[in-house]
Fold each of these.
Amino acid sequence: MNKKIAAVTLTILACALIAAAGQAVSSADASSLKARVSSVVDRFPAGSASAKDALCAELVNLGPAALLETCARVLPPGSADDSKARFAVNGLAVYVTRAGAETERLILARALLAALAREPDAQVASFFMTQLQLAGKAEAVKPLAKCLMDGALAGPAAAALQAIGGPEASRTLLKGLDTAPQGARISIVDALGEMRSREAVKKLLALAGSGDESLRRAARFALANIGDPAAGPALASVRVASSQAERAQAPGVYLLFARRLAESGETTEALAAARSILETHGGPEESQVASDALALLVSLLKDKAVPDLLGAAESPIPALRGAALGLAATIGQGETTARWVEKASASGPEVRAGIIGMLGRRGDKTALPFVRESLKSGEEIVRLAAIPAAVRLGGEAVLPDLFALVGAGGETTVAAARTALLGFDGRRVVPEAVRLLDATPVPGKAALVDIIGEKGAKQEFDRVLALASDPEPLTRAAALGALAKLGGEADLPRLVAMLETATDGDDIVRLQEAVAAAARRTADPARRGSALVDLLQNAPASRKVAILRTLPKVGGQTALGAAARESGAADSQTQTAAVYALSQWPDYAAAEDLLRIATTTQNKKHRLMAVEGYVRLVGQANIAGPRKIALFQDLLSKPFDDSDKKPVLAGASAVREPEALRLLAAYVESPVLGDAASAGLIELASEQDPEERWLSGHEAYSVLRRVEARTADPAEKEAVRKILLARLHQGGFVPVFDGRSFDGWKGLVADPPARAKMTPQELAKAQSEADERMRAHWKVVDGVLVFDGKGESLCTTSDYGDFELLVDWKIEKGGDSGLYLRGSPQVQIWDPDANPVGSGGLYNNQKGRSTPSEKADRPVGEWNSFRVIMIGERVSVYLNDKLVVDNVVLENYWERDKPIYPTGQIELQAHGNVLYFRDIFVREIPRDEAVPQMTQAETDEGFAPLFNGRDLDGWTGDTKGYAAENGKIVIHPDLGSGNLYTANEYADFVLRFEFKLTPAANNGLGVRAPLEGDAAYVGMEIQILEDGSPVYWGLRPYQYHGSIYGVVPARRGFLRPPGEWNAEEVAVKGRRVTVVVNGSTVVDADLDQASAVGTIDGNAHPGLERKSGHIGFLGHGSIVEFRNIRLKEIR
Amino acid sequence: MPKPRTISRRRFISTGAAAAASLTIIPRRVLGGQGYVAPSDTLTKAVIGVGGMGRGHLGYPGSVLRAVCDVDAKHLASALEISGPGVSGYKDFREVLARPDIDIVHIATPPHWHALISIAAAQAGKDVWCEKPMTRTIAEGRAVVEAVRRAGRIFRINTWFRFTDRFYGFGTDVRPIKKVVQNGLLGWPIKATVSATTGFDWKFYWSGLTYARPEPVPPELDYDFWLGPAPWKPYHPHRVHGTFRGYWDYDGGGLGDMGMHYLDPVQYLLDKDDTSPVEIAADCPQQHPDACGSWRRVEMKYADGCVIVLDGENRDTRAPFLEGPKGKLYRGFESDVPGLRDALAALPDPEPQVTDFSEAVRTRSRFALNERNGHRSCTLVNLAKIAVQLGRPLRFDPERQIFSGDEAANRLAGQPMRAPWHL
């Protein structure tokens, strides 16, 4: 039982609601209502609260039936995207709960209830109840009661009733308790407990003896939560049959009960309960229960609980002691404090320390004399507790005591006293610190110096400077540290002189810090460093070296200029110090000097320092990733030693751009730099953000395979493999062969037409026989599928539609095989020596091309890699990264008069010789969904469709090569390969469209173009290109997808793989052009800036000057599809 | 520029933890000396939830790992693999809490579990090191405060800007800033602006899917247990494991995930550890009922006029981090108060804080960021979340910790849990 009865009841309510609202339900009105609701719902989600309120007001104004209609658009999860409806319904629920909207709230609540009544899906019903949990009140109580009877709905219904609250909801829950299904009763019991329903106690007491443990525990908890004395006996004991967990929970439940008793004024019962817990829970394991009981006693008895606390404070159980002191800090003053002091005096050091800490926290100043006395305790633990307590209670009055501790204490006590002293105003502590300095031994002396430094007592500089050469290391270290806080420009000569002669390593580091700090501390920021730099003039080499080493810590233009100057010094020591200083520079300002040194110096050590410094600065600079890679590329083109190039490769691996991948890939096979490049690639590829699509693209796969191949250590190889698989996985590739078993594979049964004629029983039988045959001839050896040459083909158990397939294969001399796609032959594999045309061709094609465009095979006996992309009827094949089949239609071998089947298995063809396959992965490519429409928001914004979805009305040019099909503009290169332009001209605009590329596809978007001439030059061409294809791995950046061709390079790496739809926005406003691909901005350029010193490709681009022109698709012989093309003109 | 990657996030966290461990007010060896008995010589811990954040907790110094727990068998297996011998694996956290030999429980589950496990752990006599955000609702936070207090446990939240680590590009930790504020150099009341300029650039990092086709639950995951107290919703991989942060049922987007990092130190600076704002207003796009979205700005005003602004759009990159009637303090410790740095040194230091968790456990001292001030910091997050969800100005009573005049807001501040779980 029984959602149906509930549904019937509520349906009546729903009808009443609609009728009451006076909405005629003739079908014409109904459809116009639907349209009106759609027009509002489509505009959700709102961009702001006020916009949301406006949309909600529109819906409310349409009347109750419209609200019900809105609710009706919430769909069961997985059926369709109903997010707009959910935004709308929840928006309404929030909207009507604003102050003063009770009438609207009631209307919505009724609509939600009506929708709930007729909703068959539990998930959608739960959604409505969650909205009622937010916006429901009394009106929802009865209808929700029905839902309490349904197992799947009872939980949300109970939650909603609990949120609604009030006696009626409580009574309703209680009533539902008897009739609700077993599982739902727990939710109800919980809610009754939370609502403190005393009426429920009787029924809950019965359930507290239930045989069902979950229900019993819930009931016990609810009873405790309600806190009715009648439940005492039941809660005080645990059933003999109770589980371990239930027993463990019992004291906590009983404590809750005791607290609820206390809350409702049943003090005697509460006290009795707390004391009984304290008595029965004395062991160390039970300290937390005892602590709880103690807390309850304190909350009930306040000051009168002090004897209990005093007792607990000397408990041998530290946890209970801690709890007692924690509570003690919160109650009683005066007389109570005296009792605690008395207790502390009579206790051992540990308990005493705890009490002293508590006395500090409770802040009763009458404890001060005792705490102060404790500062002199012989026990360190007591002194350490007394220091902060004394400060809290005594403030400045305890300063003399603290200084006394500094004078006499051990290291730890001094450290604690120092911390306490720093909490005071410097004017109070510095004079005393100075006065005591000479007479105080270490470690106190060091602490005093420290205080003088921390408090910035500049007038004491000389005194501290003298101590900086103290023979005692602790004092010296403190003094040097303090100098950094006190020194100014005027002190620099003395600090530098000291640095020049320092020999101890630690001293030097501290002195450098002090010099740099003094140099930075200038009234005029523009003069930063100049006082220090002045000291370089006519200085001996040793002083110059000392100063130069501190310059990176000073920073700024003056210091940088000095370091650059000295890098050309005659003295080699000075020169080295200057280069080192530049290499350590904190910001990009030093990059130019470092580059100059790197490319001009003859000194190998200097060059390496300069390169490392430069790479570091470029890496951390706020410049675009591709630009960083370009800078690294420039550096690598210099005639450096390989050892100088290693840091560059490491630097490149930290730049997360596809260009970094390409840069490193060039060095993978290098004998000297291969390791560095591989390490860089592993670093780069070891993690991936979802937007870094290029890391799961074929280029990354191909490069990582090369890294894997050159890695000798098996563990490292395995690590590379893991990364590679993770990247493939993120790119949507699934391994078809697990390297161990035939999971996912089956034997071959006849051909597709023959299989289609078999009955399921026949097929199953034939399949099991075929599987047996298959296992006789195919074997898995070391992660490779090996065929002995005597059986039949190996087939995937899954069928595939559109897909990208990666597979490695190897044959022996005279070998012959192939890949069947969708169960049909074939992508050819054969011995390239016997067949010079090479592998990869669609061998059985009769109408279309059957041979590969080039021979890309590796010699027999070596592994080859196929990448096959099949979209619709067309197949592209890359063999060893060469495109050998370019979008050729695969003909149907089995039934020549039919096109290729829409789906089917992939087969590894047996052809009577030994074969090897490995690394087989498939990415399934989703087939087109419905063509998306322009959104309401875009209409409001002023966008209009540029393509009507039916024909090429409004377009001109090559209307033969381009065709309107199923809401898309599709290019047929065999019918024409020209340009398709808008009939109208546009000046400034925002254009949005979607496009789908085939492998290696090339097209372009003409902008502000005339109808004649090459739009890339006489207008502008925004590149459209599958630039991840190996065909284009040598491209210049200004040819990447999205680039203003030849003028502004685009950031690469945001395209989805071939066969998937991409979204693009091109905005042309005056001289500003932005291109956004799949949500990422790849071009944001000013045309004047971009062409100010000539365009990057060196060609004339007169079209950049045009103010308006046609928009067009510029064909380059590839199949590309466009859809949902819309444009907003900016006037 | 690409968004920060998980790797940098991890580095960010690990340097923070290392820095936290190195900052000790009183050296450990002293407290272990004569006359002092430690609860046990070696502190032991269990980590509950060993996915993304939990992995980091395995190696936090100060205690020895004894148990790991996760409802995802794969996470559990991989945590066991890296934790070495002597560590047991569990699916049910209650079994972990039942082990008497564990001192500290680290909670790195999604936030919808934080309160339940914190409370159960405190009741089981464990000290707790819990991930931020402390709790998913205000009611849960109150329950944790009470349970930890009653059990006398030591509790910390895993964020640390309040007491260590360089702060907001200030080139310093929070102490000198606290000094500026507490010594009145900027005057009162103070307006604090938290934006990408001053560190908070995580707000769009986590958004949920507003529609996702349900998928079969992978065999390694006990999804029902993973959901626990959260409402039952059909499984989709985006709901769990890292991306759970984009759903109101479990967290609150970037605001929930990272808000406490940046709000907690502000609360400390403004000395608001015992109170909460009285007015909260958010400017944001409408929120989906299930999936968290983005927001533009949240303003929270205290009774004394102090204001915290979360500038999600980083609209004013030159806004001072702190602004009072007497002066402003900017990122990089720049200020229009003449001679601020020089004046600062002599002034009293802020009160020292207990910043080493194992010390806090051993000495039973309240950790710098504990359940009480942690609850108030997390309340800032939870107030902001509710304001974002409702999209209207709210008034809050910091004493009673309920909203005034907005019942819907109160209903969001305390939501019933799914049976059999309850607070």
Amino acid sequence: MTELPLIGEAIADAPAARGLAGARIGVITFPGTLDDRDAARAVRLAGATPVALWHADTTLGDVDAIVIPGGFSYGDYLRAGAIARFAPLMAKVIDAANSDAKLPVLGICNGFQILTESHLLPGSMIKNDHLKFMCRDQILRVENTSTDWTGDYQPGQEITIPLKNQDGQYIADEKTLDALEAEGRVVFRYVGFNPNGSRRDIAGISNAAGNVVGLMPHPEHAVEAGFGPESLDGIGGSDTEGLGFFTSVLNKIVGDTK
Amino acid sequence: MTETSTGPAAGNATETKKFNIDTVENAAKTPDTELPWAELGLKQNEFDEVVKVLGRRPTGAELAMYSVMWSEHCSYKSSKNHLRQFGEKVTEEMKKDMLVGIGENAGVTNLGDGWAVTFKIESHNSPSFVEPYQGAATGIGGIVRDIISMGARPVAVMDPLRFGAIDHPDTARVMHGAVAGIGGYGNSLGLPNIGGEMVFDSVYQGNPLVNALAVGVMRHEDIRLANASGKGNKVVLFGARTGGDGIGGASVLASESFDDTKPSKRPAVQVGDPFAEKVLIECCLELFKGSLVEGIQDLGAAGISCATSELASNGDGGMEVELTSVLLRDPTLTPGEILMSESQERMMAVVTPENIAAFEAVMDKWAVEYSWLGEVTDTGRLIITWEGEVIVDVDPRTVAHDGPVYDRPYARPEWQDAVQADSFTGSVQDAGRPSAPVELAAAITELVASPNMCDKSWITRQYDRYVGGNTALAMPDDAGVVRVDEETGLGVALATDANGRYTYLDPYHGAQLALAEAYRNVATTGAVPMAVSDCLNFGSPEDPDVMWQLAEAIRGLSDACMVLGIPVTGGNVSLYNQTGTVPIHPSPVVAVLGKFDDVARRTPSGWREDGQAVYLLGTTAAELDGSEWSNLRGHLGGLPPKVDLAAERALGEILINASRDGMVDSAHDLSEGGLAAALVESSLRYGVGARIALQDVLDRDGVDLFTALFSESQGRAIVSVPRSEEIRFKDMCTARNFPHLRIGVVDAEGGTLEINGVETMSLEALREAHEATLPKYFG
Amino acid sequence: MPRIVVDVMPKPEILDPQGKAIVGALPRLGFTAFSSVRQGKRFELMVDGEVTEEILAQARDAAETLLSNPVIEDVVNVEVVEA
């Protein structure tokens, strides 16, 4: 098991040039975060360098993108993501996402919840309609391949990604939902089965610029042969249909610096 | 350095809350003071023993400590004499990979390459009946803390569950709560649930069994033990604050059966906070990485009483603690209550003075509260003070280790012979045994839809199986498999099994059958079995019938461990599982841990490739007593299937070699539900059918088709073999003289399971029946 | 010690799955008088000393920015309760 560097240690300055492996993708850990190691593994498998970030840091360091991973930050106390969004590092993430540089930010599950609580993305998640925690291999349709995180997919491509959460029901008012649809900002939609009652079967959305994407399912659990939905449950075309998230942003970063 | 005396300020006469502190000095002067030892769960002889040990009456605080630590749950007083066999019947072969054996928080086994694995299974039964969610949740919390305290990162959990009749309204109450609690706590810790069991039987109606297993991994140098050594080293309590949780829970609950004529007990059940435990895990791992603690102990049953007395008695023998330093959630707790509290998510550690600052830095980073309670001494005494006055002065060994040991009387029950003579075969419930093809198809469908054999997704999809990214196999496969080393693929497999029906019929062999099944499950996935943990769930040890069941089960299990060559490295005993005078079936749950050199080689339980040959390994006899079929017909009697441990070893070796060398694509062992269940399960696993013919089995073993399908003879498995591997596979079995028969072929086209002599069953219909049961009862 | 009570309820248009489960369970226990249930949250904020207008304003502010998520919840009550 390769461990991330101890959280909170100073991040060394990175080289100016960005080859594939030079691309640095930050993964934030809050107290209660669970899937940070998995997100780091996904970054590594895609060919980039994961950078461990601590919620209390006041600087992002020199990262090219950010992943806010899944888990139960602060125990989901008050509301999922409600406390994490006020972390010192999140202020920097919000600035960087809104800046001219438009830092790519991916929020997975609890990360998506933190993004909606921070208002980087509209809407909110409430309890699954059936009230239980649900872990299943979910088919998603990728509907927007222009975001920073979906460039490597084909429009309309169906992928199988593990879903596992208790509070994954995406809701927003009709006006917001209509706008999301009209602007093509619904990035992923549940196919075949809506696992939590999310409005319009929405599994994930983006901001207008396409650099901030949030989704409830966990692509970082579908990145390694032998450990994905196909091997574990015989579902889906392959174990690695989530890898595209991480290669997409990597290609975007490398492409941008050419 | 912290602070926080939360007791009443000395000399402050206006404080509204004052404790009458019963000091040691006071106790020595007032020998005739009445003490509530009976209410606290002690028996007269035990109280007398405490007085003898101390040479005076105990103080209130000392009484509290002895009462919880000498409870059945903590002291194992009724089972200790028998449990010795696990430590005695150990060969050199069994010891070679054991790094830490019985006696510590959990056993540790060497995996090679500098890696070690620790695992243990424990019960949290009574609390789960009283408050299913919190009872089950804190069961997970407790076993995970045991694993952390060994120096490991916990990596997976499992949950063997046994509840009452599926259609009884109270079962739904327990089911919903317990499953939500296990998921709620385990998922929040980031631990994948990789397997478990679900058995419904009315014997568990008032006494549901919630057992929890946790497994963790560490490098050899990270192994930590629970001892306090080094005079002058500091003792620190960290994690959650101490409140009134579970006061008397350990001693009160586990030592008293539920009496359905008295009003229900309302003990204080522990309430868990998984977020606090997740933070504690990360905190502890940083402490271990920095070598900042000399010894560490988690606080479970009997809280601070246990942690202090165990740390002290395992180490140099002495400790001094100022109890007002404990951070409290509830300022009204008396010293005795503080000592008995079972508030969750707390750990105690021993830290050298040089490491104090670094220790505090880790705590501050994770915002974990801590308080320095005292230090290690060389006096051989555990001294606890309250604002400087001594309220506890004991030899910690008398609290933690040298408690009473009972030689409970036991005798083979008078009714055992009659039960064993009452075979299913020929009984009134056996009348009208299915034989026509359509009857057999209906019987198979009934079997796979039955509560104990049906699909368990209703439960398992409430558990996260993915977190950590190292789960290579999970339910419904035969064992859970977790990768330990991402570079080499080194990993572990785990399975838990028990059969209360077999064990009721014959406790000695029933326990052996549980071990055999778990062993077989692990080998079926391709892992080499290495270690055992057991959770012995039985009725009241004061009932000689039950005590006989316990004695026989331990004897059987320890004997079997020797034959299979794998040691018990730790475990748990849960007694008094009965309502009134009716005990549960003796239910020894056995967990087996196995090792994979490379988890990529693991074998799933279902076939996928058209045309592969299906082989049946092992032989079948007419063994229906105690079977799932007999359960469906309402019969329990006769003798359980024969145990042949040499055959299990041989079968295991075949399955492991076949897996390693790619000779089989799937393997599924036979157990409850026999061949019928196994064939259906292997077909439904990936939705691929097969065409099966059993005439060769009938001819060779001299059984009829019904028997071949429903008998639960041991030492058997079915495998699917690629055509290219068939000769190699057959040769291997022949060379080992192991019975093997080709019984059919995988059929990916037909969408059916065809068994000659049985009406063809569509996979869709089988799946529908298999998957409808739990949702029907639980929504 | 005075405290400020803040009550937060899901917005009327939000489907409340927990409330729905509760109203389903009540009749099973013999409580048949209730046509619907909505589940909210109650917060108690302790104040050392007197609750001034400024402190009350802080409470309202906290209610809007942290204690509730305005996308899905309304602050329906902020009131001072004497000890």
